[in-house]
């Protein structure tokens, strides 16, 4: 089976870049990676596909993403101030689909968060729909499928 | 004998730790008191386990808890509800592990005993060795007494307890108002958020009748709202109130204009709901129906707290479960209208996601505060939690109940007095 390593490299580089921005709280630049109609989704049910008609942990359009970032950056949220940091590893990247308009990429992520001295880890599958442009990709959709999405989670004051 | 005395001391201890305007911090962290609470509170009263819409059809089930006991809520072929202990009568395995679903029977995975939706034991593999040993009729899944009000299902271990409606008492009127947010459609569970926090269950119990914290800890949520909506949430100086409804229940009215969602249907459509109104018009709804649904979409302007484990909290159910003395699980159950226009239920879910659940703009800050209460309660040998706010500024409500200002701690005092009464009672042991 032939793998398009050129495309794989480009997509992986983009996703790593995004991961680094999020771990280092460079949220404004992160916002600029998005297509204006893009959706950031963290489902409660990983088998669900109709996200708009079900309850999600997060379903952010451009406005909600901007407000989510504003909340984290404002200094008004005590839980956000208590996050000492996150370190995420992204790997196992695979191109699922490629068309003229978009590329669908799936990869594995483990995010580790330190808060009040407690280390919490979040293994997840990430599914991206990336839109190629002259300057590289834009995110048209990002779905974060947490392994324990339907379990009892700790609260989250960062961005997956 | 010495065991008996020890037990008595504990109950006295817990009950003595509740005074009128303060409770001792050890109530959050003493493991013996926690065990006593499971017996004397959670096994001794009506406990909310779900909403009927979660088991809509014959064969539907959901799993839940009464205190620490795993239970199944099921609906049989005749559409009757059952609350069953989730424990096989053979050697005790759970017979149902899914969160919810549909099934014809509950089959134990270990040796294959099969139970009907009503809990009856129907099938035993290789039954011959039980001849003369046991009779299937004697070994159904144990069932709990349960009753419903407006679709809210409660179960109890105390088979001779008062009827649910008597237990709810003055809270019934508020449940009737709460279910109006279906917008003329029957209330329906749309999904739920689940999270836990490292703290005692009573910290959550207090929180749903605590308006005082809202503008402080939820500042980052309020900042994310448009000005008109932020004004609505600026309710501490308004005409709201907290009313003690008896039995540990209370209602906290934050936004008096949103108590009855079927009144004042002529109000203009707020900016935050313009998109919903337009989507409903596009579906061909007439203007009267648009206004009705938009008003219902707000949710109610009050939190109704039902002791010990559920709050009908503005636009959702907030259910708590005590896991251990220092760990509590919480469900934020989103609700909408059964058969309501899709844009209405979508808007309800988007509003829920905005504030509630582990990734909402509100819950993580609540969770942080509660975690700190638990941590802080470990400081010092002795110390008290104050619940005396507004204690000298009480009035009698039109229904004849004690009421205080919206940001008073009247509801907490009511809940703790019920708690004290239950904890002081003689144990059954
Ligand atoms: S434990 Fe259930 S069949 Fe044996
Ligand atoms: Fe809160």
Which terms summarize this structure?
A: 160 residues, alpha+beta, 4 helices, globular, B: 429 residues, Rieske Iron-sulfur Protein, Naphthalene 1,2-dioxygenase Alpha Subunit, Chain A, domain 1, 9-stranded antiparallel β-sheet, 4-stranded antiparallel β-sheet, 29% helix, 25% strand, binds FE2/S2 (inorganic) cluster
Radius of gyration over C-alpha positions of chain B, nearest whole angstrom? 23 Å
- Work out the count of structural domains of chain B: 2
Number of helices of chain A: 4
Rg from Cα of chain A: 16 Å
Write out the strand line-up for the largest beta sheet of chain A, numbering strands in chain order: 2-1-6-5-4-3
CATH hierarchy: architecture of the largest domain in chain B:
Alpha-Beta Complex
Describe the structure.
The complex is a heterodimer of chains A (160) and B (429). By secondary structure, chain A is of the alpha+beta class. Chain A has one domain: Roll (Nuclear Transport Factor 2, Chain: A), CATH 3.10.450.50. In chain A, 25% of the residues lie in helices and 44% in strands. A six-stranded mixed sheet of chain A has the order 2-1-6-5-4-3. In chain A, a hairpin with a 4-residue loop joins strand 3 and strand 4 (103-115). The radius of gyration of chain A is 16 Å and the shape is globular. The N and C termini of chain A lie far apart (32 Å). The model of chain A has no long low-confidence stretch (mean pLDDT 97). The relative contact order of chain B is 0.16. The longest helix of chain B has 15 residues, at 2-16. Chain B has 429 residues and is of the alpha+beta class. Chain B is globular, with a radius of gyration of 23 Å. The N and C termini of chain B lie close together (12 Å). Chain B has two domains: 48-149, Rieske [2Fe-2S] iron-sulphur domain (Rieske Iron-sulfur Protein), CATH 2.102.10; 170-420, Naphthalene 1,2-dioxygenase Alpha Subunit, Chain A, domain 1 (Alpha-Beta Complex), CATH 3.90.380. In chain B, a hairpin with a 2-residue loop joins strand 16 (310-313) and strand 17. The chains are: A alpha+beta (160), B alpha+beta (429). Chain A binds chain B through residues 42, 44-45, 52-59, 64, 67-68, 70-71, 74, 76-80, 82, 116, 150-157, and chain B through 99, 190-197, 217, 219-221, 223-224, 329-330, 334, 342, 345-346, 349-350, 352-354, 357-359, 361, 363-365, 367-369, 371. The complex binds FE2/S2 (inorganic) cluster and fe (ii) ion. Residues 88, 90-93, 108, 110-113 of chain B line the site of FE2/S2 (inorganic) cluster.
């Amino acid at each position: 089976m032939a793998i398009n390593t050129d495309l794989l490299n480009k997509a992986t580089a983009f996703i790593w870049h995004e991961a680094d921005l999020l771990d280092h709280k460079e949220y404004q630049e992160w916002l600029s990676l998005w297509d204006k109609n893009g959706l950031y989704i963290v489902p409660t049910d990983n088998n669900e596909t109709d996200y708009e008609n079900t309850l999600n942990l997060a379903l952010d359009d451009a406005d909600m993403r901007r407000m989510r970032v504003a909340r984290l950056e404002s200094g008004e949220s005590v839980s956000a101030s208590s996050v000492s940091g996150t370190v995420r590893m992204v790997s196992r990247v695979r191109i699922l689909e490629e068309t003229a308009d978009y590329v669908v990429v799936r990869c594995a992520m483990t995010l580790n968060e330190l808060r009040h001295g407690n280390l919490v880890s979040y293994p997840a599958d990430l599914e991206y729909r990336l839109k190629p442009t002259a300057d590289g990709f834009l995110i048209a959709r990002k779905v974060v499928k947490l392994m324990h999405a339907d379990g009892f989670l700790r609260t989250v004051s960062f961005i997956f | 004998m010495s065991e008996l005395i020890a037990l008595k001391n504990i109950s006295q201890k817990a009950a003595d730790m509740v005074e009128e305007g303060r409770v001792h911090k050890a109530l959050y962290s003493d493991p013996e008191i926690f065990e006593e609470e499971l017996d004397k509170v959670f096994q001794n009263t009506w406990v909310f386990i779900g909403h009927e819409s979660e088991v809509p059809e014959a064969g539907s089930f959901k799993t839940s808890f009464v205190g620490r006991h795993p239970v199944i809520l099921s609906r049989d072929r005749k559409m009757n509800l059952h609350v069953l202990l989730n424990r096989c009568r053979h050697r005790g395995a759970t017979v149902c592990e899914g969160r919810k679903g549909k099934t014809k029977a509950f089959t134990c995975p270990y040796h294959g005993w099969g139970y009907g939706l009503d809990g009856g034991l129907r099938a035993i593999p290789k039954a011959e060795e039980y001849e003369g040993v046991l009779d299937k009729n004697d070994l159904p899944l144990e069932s709990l007494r349960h009753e419903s009000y407006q679709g809210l299902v409660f179960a109890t271990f105390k088979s001779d307890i008062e009827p649910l409606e008597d237990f709810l008492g003055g809270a019934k009127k508020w449940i009737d108002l709460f279910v109006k947010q279906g917008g003329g459609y029957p209330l329906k569970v749309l999904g739920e958020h689940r999270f836990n926090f490292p703290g005692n269950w009573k910290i959550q119990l207090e929180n749903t009748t605590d308006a005082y914290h809202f503008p402080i800890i939820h500042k980052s949520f309020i900042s994310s709202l448009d000005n008109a909506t932020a004004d609505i949430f600026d309710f501490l100086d308004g005409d709201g109130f907290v009313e003690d409804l008896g039995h540990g229940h209370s209602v906290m009215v934050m936004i008096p204009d949103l108590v009855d969602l079927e009144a004042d249907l002529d109000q203009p459509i707020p900016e935050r709901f313009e998109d919903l109104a337009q989507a409903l018009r596009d579906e061909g709804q007439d203007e009267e129906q648009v206004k009705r649904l938009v008003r219902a979409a707000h949710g109610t302007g009050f939190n109704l707290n039902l002791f010990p484990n559920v709050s009908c909290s503005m636009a959702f159910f907030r259910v708590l479960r005590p896991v251990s003395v220092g760990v509590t699980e919480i469900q934020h159950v989103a609700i909408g209208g059964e058969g309501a226009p899709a844009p209405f239920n979508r808007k309800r879910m988007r509003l829920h996601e905005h504030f509630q659940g582990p990734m909402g703009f509100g819950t993580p800050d609540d969770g942080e505060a509660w975690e700190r209460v638990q941590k802080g309660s470990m400081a010092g040998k002795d110390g008290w939690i104050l619940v005396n706010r507004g204690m000298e500024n009480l009035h009698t409500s039109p229904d004849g109940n004690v009421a205080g200002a919206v940001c008073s701690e009247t509801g907490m005092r009511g809940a703790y007095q019920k708690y004290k009464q239950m904890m002081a009672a003689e144990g059954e042991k």
